[in-house]
Amino acid sequence: MATTTDIRNGLVIYFNDDLFSVVEFQHVKPGKGGAFVRTKLKSLRTGRVIANTFNSGEKIEIARVERRPHQYLFKDDMGYHFMHSETFEQVTIPAELINAPQFMKEGQEVEIVFHADTETPLNCDLPAYVELAITYTEPGLRGNTATNAMKDATLETGAVVKVPLFINTGEVIRVDTRTSEYGERVRS
């Protein structure tokens, strides 16, 4: 058993019969009364973020989780199929466990978080930025870089993102998977 002094960002704990990841924490020592730890916890099952305050020295139970590298293979009616990069074992994951499934393309490297005791997948994390080609967008206007006007662009995975007016069909762009926003044009 660990105590609240062991809390750090990214730590996974058992709390209220669920697995939670510590998103944010702050040790507080008020002038009067005992110290406490203010936290924001994200449920690994539902994705909901809750705020909770632990008294200093309170016991917490740390869950053992492992991040394993996988390669995305394909999607079918059973879910998304991945292959472990070293052991070549395959695993199928439902879309709810993937943070941005609309940006995955075949062969892409991802990290899947597994609960080490039960060997169940908890979530799938894509890289922060992915590079994808644009399959369709309205024709670009040369020199139109001064305004912040945006237009829709369909990517090779089928996802639609807003891009600046000067971006054309066939170009490769970098997309932020956390916010689903255009990052920059990739020069080849």
SSE topology:
Blueprint: E1 2-3, E2 12-15, E3 18-28, E4 36-43, E5 49-55, E6 59-62, E7 65-76, E8 79-84, E9 90-93, E10 109-115, E11 120-125, E12 129-137, E13 150-155, E14 160-164, E15 172-176, E16 181-185
Question: What does this molecule look like?
Answer:
- The protein is mainly β and 188 residues long.
- The protein has 3 domains: 2-62, SH3 type barrels (Roll), CATH 2.30.30; 65-125, OB fold (Dihydrolipoamide Acetyltransferase, E2P) (Beta Barrel), CATH 2.40.50; 129-185, Nucleic acid-binding proteins (OB fold (Dihydrolipoamide Acetyltransferase, E2P), Beta Barrel), CATH 2.40.50.140.
- Helix content is 0%, strand content 54%.
- It has strands at 2-3, 12-15, 18-28, 36-43, 49-55, 59-62, 65-76, 79-84, 90-93, 109-115, 120-125, 129-137, 150-155, 160-164, 172-176, 181-185.
- The protein has a 6-stranded antiparallel sheet, with no helix packed on it.
- It starts with a strand and ends with a strand.
